[in-house]
Amino acid sequence: MTVVMTETRSKTAARYLVEQLAAWGCRTVYGVAGDDNLHLLDALEKQDAIQYIACRLETTAALMASAEAKMTGRLAVCTATAGPGAALLVAGLGDAAMDRAPVLAITGQVERKKIGTGEKQAVDQQLLVQPLARYTAMTADADALPEQLNRAMRTALEEGGVAHLSVPKDVWTQPVDAQVFPPTPKRKPPRPAEEEMEKAIRAMEGAKRPIILAGRGTEESREALLALAERLTAPITVTMPARPVVPADHPLFLGGLGQAGSEISSDLLRESDLCLILGSTWWPEDFVPKEIPVIQADISPGQIGLHMPVIAGIVGELGEVLKEWLARLRPADRSEWRSRIDGARTRWKEQIEKEARQIQTPLAPQQVIAALGRAVDDEALIALDTGDHALWFNRIFQPKKQEILLSGRWRTLGFGLPAAMAAKRVYGHRQAVALVGDGGFVTTMADLITAVRYGWPITVIVMNNGSFAMEKNRMETAGLDPAAAELINPDFAALAEAFGGEGYFVEHADQLEETFRRALSSNRPSVVDVRIGSPRVPHTRL
Predict the structure, then answer these.
(1) What is the DSSP letter of 287?
(2) Please, are residues 470 and 534 in contact by the beta-carbon 8 Å criterion?
(3) Would you say 245 and 222 are in contact if contact means Cβ atoms under 8 Å apart?
(4) Which end of the chain is more exposed for a tag (fewer CB within 10 A), N or C?
């Protein structure tokens, strides 16, 4: 195996690990200090290739790493100590695992001689992490570290997801004489099978009412996607992470799919005779027809047909697949379908504009989302926490070039703040906004002080309705007592000031846009406490 030629004199395992990470382009490690990872943190402080970000909560560290990996596609790294540190890290690693973001977790472990003796904070970390990790191992001897670390990094990057190493406290100071491994060369995507390509072409040319479901995998193929949609007269519905891929004013854009999407996406999908699923696995059963011919294209073979039967499965680099389709497809007259699309889009636009204009107290979530859309930069990074507000966002927000970050399948509370901080860390020149609920924000709120410490001027907008609104509304719909979903909240604006940031309070519609602009232009972390109602999102049920 080819290795990077570096000096081979002995170095500690901690120093070797840091040098190996740096050789693969790692520039940040997120973590919390604990007794069993202190030698690693010391090694990080004694070099300047990688910055260590000291979080207050291990879950925050893991979520920041996951968000960075989603934004960049690069390996992101987090660390924690043994026992509760590792356990809290796992709560955030689930996000990377479920959304297939390449994250390496390094956890300390008790000394080797104390493993299995009932030592404090000792736990079988491989058993703890195994359900979420594509690779996990304990480094029982420093001589094993180079191969284990190389395997862990390769697995996370090549398979997408979490890799994990636990390193006992006494191993960190052991000598390592190995050289660092070089980064893995990029593999050329597979060439799509001609038989499947031909099936897809025939199906598209024969379709009278085609539709496209685009996922985040299309973000590097935006122009080809739009060209294909226009060639086929195929309206485009998108997953939430793919909202910025298609301009909201494009004549074929339908909005999102599912409860958080637009009604016209489901309506036209039911009328369609062919669906192209591109770079996505999202297929919400309650909002899609039971039987519809599906063509799916994805760079990963494992995604093809994962959630629905397909009549053609195309494995390959999406941009090249779309270009080949465009070169081979013959145009067809679908003017009747185009008229149906235009009418549906007009009615939907009128509906969401009506919702955004409503005046009420407490404020309607739609009012808040519409005001944010007017105030935020076109290229802002918007991190959504999990909750009712995310559904309203997908329904109302009209994206331009904003990038949307969310906990797609893990859907953990508390994602918004860490993701916004990671966004600002990675792309310091762009606005970073966390749109959070009052329930979700509190779970990682302690790390607002981390944004203050590192001078990240993020903006946190708290949709404050005094409840876990999604759960409350579902319980009420089912005739259940919603008392358990009600919340008592602190003064979020005052809390932001206490942390060293700026705090704002909004309860009237005429305050929204001006307050958002002030917060977004601040050079300090800011929190906007917005008092809203908790109306039910359409199709809410238990």
Answers:
(1) G
(2) no
(3) yes
(4) N
pTM (2 d.p.): 0.95
- The angle, 0 to 180 degrees and rounded to 10, between the axes of the packed helices 365-375 and 509-520 is 40
**Residue 486: both structure tokens together:** 């009600």
Task: Please give the Cα distance from 235 to 254 (Å, whole number).
Answer: 7
Helix (H), strand (E), coil (C) string for 104-163: EEEEEECCHHHCCCCCCCCCCHHHHHCCCEEEEEECCCHHHHHHHHHHHHHHHHHHHCEE
Instruction: Write out the H or E segment, with its range, that includes residue 338.
Output: helix 335-357
As beta bridge partners, residue 532 has 363
- Strands of 75-187 (E only): list them: 76-80, 103-109, 133-138, 162-168, 175-176
Contact present, 122 and 152 (Cβ < 8 Å): no
Distance CA 393, CA 370 (A): 9
Q: What angle do CA 518, 523, 526 make, to 5 degrees?
A: 60
Rounded to the nearest angstrom, the gap between the alpha carbon of residue 159 and the centroid of all alpha carbons in its chain is: 17
The strand pairing partners of 531, in sequence order, are 464
- Polymer length of the chain: 542
Return the structure tokens found at 382. Answer: 């918007």
CA–CA distance from 90 to each of 83, 104, 173, 391, 519 (Å)?
11, 12, 26, 26, 33
